[in-house]
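Students often ask why inverse folding is considered easier than folding. One informal answer: many sequences map to the same fold, so there is more than one right answer. In these notes we will look at a single instance of the problem. The structure comes first.
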């Protein structure tokens, strides 16, 4: 069922796009591929309900005539999971190729972020401080950061086995890009605050201040049922967040 915000946005012809990047990894099993397909489905459903038009992009969307990505990524130390970390660098070129905008990891649950244009005048902005789980920027900014991050990664050749795109991002001076703490990130005690057993009115009120919640691999490692399928955890948490939103709207209407 589509969210009310989404229906209104479609009716008036204004549906901002939220992208996520996804590439199939050759080493994945059949079960891995099924789980990732289910996770993408839950991501789409959650962002549609929040009023956005979710789109999945991949390395196939990169403008290869414009961007020589093979040369850009060559010599970056990518560790033992090379295809995955290669894809993490490629997503910046893919976002530049589609014209920039908003990009979310596909394990990020939207909370209080309303459908909107990119903020900060289009400047590259990381909304989980220096973890690229929710990022926005103009086409020019995405292109610029794609080259900066890959160059930073290449400079680490011979110094380490793995230098991920997040490590490259965090190696830059903090004033090199805009950053904020609008995403609920990893909680050392609980994994994520969304793992709370009870969502009180106060909890919901405070939760709505956040753009979204990142249900990362690190967060999942602390989930009470560590064997639970990730998409199922995401789906159930997204439903609880949606119930929080509804309860807050009900209170607002009643008042």
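Output (designed amino acids):
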């Amino acid at each position: 069922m589509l969210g009310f915000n989404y229906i209104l946005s479609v009716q008036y012809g204004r549906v901002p796009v939220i992208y996520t990047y996804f590439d199939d990894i050759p080493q994945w099993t059949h079960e891995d591929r099924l789980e990732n397909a289910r996770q993408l489905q839950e991501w789409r459903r959650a962002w549609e309900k929040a009023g956005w038009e979710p789109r999945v992009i991949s390395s196939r969307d990169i403008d290869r005539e414009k961007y020589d990505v093979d040369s850009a990524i060559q010599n970056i130390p990518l560790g033992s999971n090379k295809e995955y970390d290669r894809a993490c660098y490629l997503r910046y070129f893919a976002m530049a190729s589609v014209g920039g905008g908003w990009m979310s990891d596909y394990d990020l649950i939207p909370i209080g972020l309303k459908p909107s244009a990119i903020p900060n005048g289009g400047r590259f902005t990381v909304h989980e401080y220096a973890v690229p789980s929710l990022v926005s920027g103009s086409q020019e900014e995405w292109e610029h950061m794609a080259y900066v991050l890959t160059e930073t990664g290449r400079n680490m050749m011979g110094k380490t086995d793995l230098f991920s795109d997040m490590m490259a991002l965090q190696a830059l001076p903090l004033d090199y890009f805009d950053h904020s703490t609008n995403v609920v990130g990893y909680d050392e005690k609980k994994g994520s605050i969304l793992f709370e057993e009870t969502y009180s009115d106060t909890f919901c009120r405070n939760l709505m201040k956040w753009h979204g919640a990142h249900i990362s691999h690190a967060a999942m490692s602390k989930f009470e049922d560590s064997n639970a399928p990730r998409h199922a955890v995401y789906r159930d948490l997204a439903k609880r967040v949606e119930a929080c939103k509804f309860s807050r709207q009900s209170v607002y209407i009643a008042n």
